[in-house]
Amino acid sequence: MSHRLLGAAMTAALALGVTACGSGGSSSSSSDNALEIWIRQPPDSESAKTAVKLADAFTKASGVKTKVVALFDDFETKLNQQAAQKDLPDIVINDTAQLGNMVSQGWLQPVDKAALKGGDQLAETAWTAATGADGKFYAAPFSAQSFALIVRKDWREKVDMEPPATWEDLAKLAVAFTEKDPDGNGQKDTAGFVAPAGTKRGYASWYASSLIYANGGDFIKATGGGKYAATVNDPKTVEAVQFLQDQFCKTKTVNPGAVSNDTTVTHEVFEKGQGGIYLVGPYVLARFVNSIGTDKIEVLPVPKGPSGGPGTLGEGENVYMMAGSPNPDNQKKFAEFAISPEGQKIGMNKDANGAIVRLPVNTTVDMAAERQDPRWKVFQESYANAVYAPPVPNWAPIRQTSADTINAVWADCSANVKTAMDELNTKLTQELQSQKAS
């Protein structure tokens, strides 16, 4: 990926921006004795405020000072800048899918699962997302999530349709939302699906993943001995991508501009009533309850595909203990606090907006006791069949290359999906070979 190809000009251009964000890294931590914690959240967001609450509670419990740095745009690029300066933060809370990339950069310290207080309370499924290609653990699991459909319930009732039980039902509901004026304003200005279908950070692949897994497809498969083979041209995967191309191109039920959008824009598109079906994780549920109205939205499971399922993408966030920190004992203490019942509950933030723990990974935490909104249960039930990115040395270029191809067949309605996926399969095979994982 581009992480390994950053030039000196990019580094110089970012230097001022990172400094302005207050990322002093390990040198800052050693000078003011504060544990520096980076989290991939927009600054001043509700999620960033929750991260500060977590850090403050840790400080109160341990006496260890903390400094939270919330960054969102170009998060990984800014980490590269800090690494180049040998000035990484002490702790990074970031996506599980970034583990392989950070391991390959030499940024992470291995984690002794047995020596991590509370590690035996964490779900084994969550530990798989903290496992590197060499079988070692490189993070403490912190948060998990699966995916479901957040749907405009008021629209569905307006067009007099039942919750979708099949992909055919889902497509028909999208057509009704597009053609039957579900918002009642007398204009044909709504879409069925809203989708973050752009290529930034691999979003097109990220969005398609849940339908691919719901149809029994995949991107790569394990062949034994820590090796993998590309399977993205498997008929089940092709069928899922074709289903989505049909929504873009035949029924035209996806919001305009989706092929250029990331999640930040797509959240707003859904909130503005420009579309009524959003395949997404639980982290936006509380936000939509506040901005749209609790009676207007519902959470429905992703229907099983015609050739497989059920399944959705599984992911979350890990607590990464970064290499080179002068505070290894405090890094471990923070990780142990974050995975403890107290830390998990703070991160969950009950039913309020700003959760940084979507589904708790600590099995002693009763989610129903913390959250009264029953819609969270749909995500929790979907997690039982969630599929995490496999522990290849670096998943990031596989997701990005897949996103580039999938986005292209959605943007170009003349594109042949099977041909494109055959070509993508060749590219993924080459990537696996370059990672010595084939």
Please give the count of helices.
18
Widest sheet, order of strands? 2-1-3-12-4-13
Instruction: Indicate the CATH architecture of the largest domain.
Output: 3-Layer(aba) Sandwich
Gyration radius (Cα, Å) is 21 Å
* Quaternary structure classification: single chain
What is the name of the CATH topology of the largest domain? Answer: D-Maltodextrin-Binding Protein, domain 2
Helical proportion?
A: 40-55%
Mean pLDDT: 91
**3D shape:** globular
Beta content comes to 15-25%
Signal peptide: 1-20
GO molecular function: maltose binding
GO biological process, one term: maltose transport
Keywords: Signal, Transport
Summarize the structure.
The chain has helices spanning 8-20, 25-32, 46-62, 75-84, 99-104, 124-128, 153-158, 167-179, 203-214, 235-249, 263-271, 285-291, 328-339, 341-348, 367-370, 376-382, 396-411, 417-434; strands at residues 34-40, 65-71, 91-95, 140-145, 148-152, 191-194, 220-224, 227-230, 275-280, 297-300, 312-313, 315-321, 359-360, 386-387. By secondary structure, it is an alpha/beta fold.
